[in-house]
Amino acid sequence: MTVLRAQALGKKYGSHWALKDCDLDIPAGHVVGLVGPNGAGKTTLMNLAVGQLRPTAGDITVLGNKPGSGPAQLARVGYVAQDTPTYAGLSIADHLRLGARLNPGWDDALARNRLEQLGLGLDRKAGKLSGGQRAQLALTLGIAKRPELLVLDEPVAALDPLARREFLQGLMEAAAEQELSVLLSSHLVSDLERVCDYLIVLVDSRVRVAGEVEELLATHHRLTGPRRDR
Ligand code: ATP
Predict the structure, then answer these.
(1) What gap in Å lies between CA 50 and CA 149, rounded to an integer?
(2) In testing the pocket of ligand 1, which one of 19, 44, 152 has its CB within 8 Å of the most ligand atoms?
(3) Ligand 1 contact, 186 CB (< 6 A)
(4) Backbone angles phi, psi at 77, to 5 degrees
(5) What is the per-residue pLDDT across 10-25, written as a single tens digit (0 to 9) for each?
(6) Which atom of ligand 1 is nearest to the CA of 205?
(7) What letter does residue 152 receive in the DSSP assignment?
(8) CA 45–ligand 1 middle distance (angstroms)
(9) In this structure, are residues 194 and 168 in contact, taking their beta carbons and an 8 Å threshold?
(10) How far is the CA of 17 from the centre of ligand 1 (A)?
């Protein structure tokens, strides 16, 4: 199954192409890293994938369907946006109740187990959590929806190095345990190299490189020859 296919995909704001001539064909089951500098078009591509934006040009399908084409498709794709709201005045338990009401496939046991492992008590108010804990709560809510694809827009950008590592480790474990496909963005390749097995490099609104990390490394080694610095 193809998790994300884009053909000549483009999105224009006024006269500016935020994403242009994007071709992708990504099999399911990967943790895909989307890397590029600020303004490269990462959020635009993610918003197209989850159906929050419509393309100006070309086509995109996610899990075989047009993004945002109906409730069934929306339930298959989880989105942890840069500004995913956790409600400061609500407890973690309230967030779980909200998740259960909004998502038909909600897995409450999974959410509770994960929060317990993280040491996050259900009665704590989201507004009292640290940045790393809030990010973990958002990740837990995304996973408990039991999507087939989880899209995360720069989830670790504002976190300290320890919280970054813990978040990415948890994401990797969840992806492996639940056979979840993941699309994860960052402007730092160092965030992605440990967790992703597929990489998309986006620069100036265009996909410059896309492929399995192993293949990209093999190509790199073929082009540059054996390393002499060892
Ligand atoms: P960042 O890492 O800063 O979040 P990004 O790679 O996610 O950047 P996008 O947010 O997709 O990049 O933006 C791509 C380009 O499109 C940028 O030049 C941005 O200014 C522009 N852009 C994004 N959203 C809009 C909008 N709603 N209206 C006009 N221009 C926009």
Answers:
(1) 10
(2) 44
(3) no
(4) -125, 125
(5) 999 999 999 999 999 9
(6) 14
(7) E
(8) 10
(9) yes
(10) 10
Q: Is the CB of 187 under 6 A from ligand 1?
A: yes
Q: Which two tokens stand for residue 13?
A: 């704001």
Q: What CA–CA distance (Å, rounded) separates 137 from 131?
A: 10
Q: What is the pLDDT of residues 30-42, one digit of tens each?
A: 999 999 999 999 9
Question: Is there a contact between 149 and 182 (Cβ–Cβ < 8 Å)?
Answer: yes
Specify the 3-state DSSP secondary structure of 51: coil
Tokens of 125: 């108010």
Q: Which pTM was predicted?
A: 0.93
- Planar angle of CA 80, 84, 86, nearest 5 degrees: 120
Question: Angle at CA 79, nearest 5°, toward 73 and 84?
Answer: 140
Encoding tokens for residue 139?
């990740």
Among 20, 43, 202, which is best to mutate for testing ligand 1, by the most ligand atoms less than 8 A from CB? Answer: 43
Side chain identity at 104, as an amino acid letter? P
3-state secondary structure of 93: helix
Q: Identify any residues that bridge with 23 across adjacent strands, giving them in sequence order.
A: none
Calculate the dihedral angle through the C-alpha atoms of 31, 137, 102, 174, rounding to the nearest 10 degrees. Answer: 30
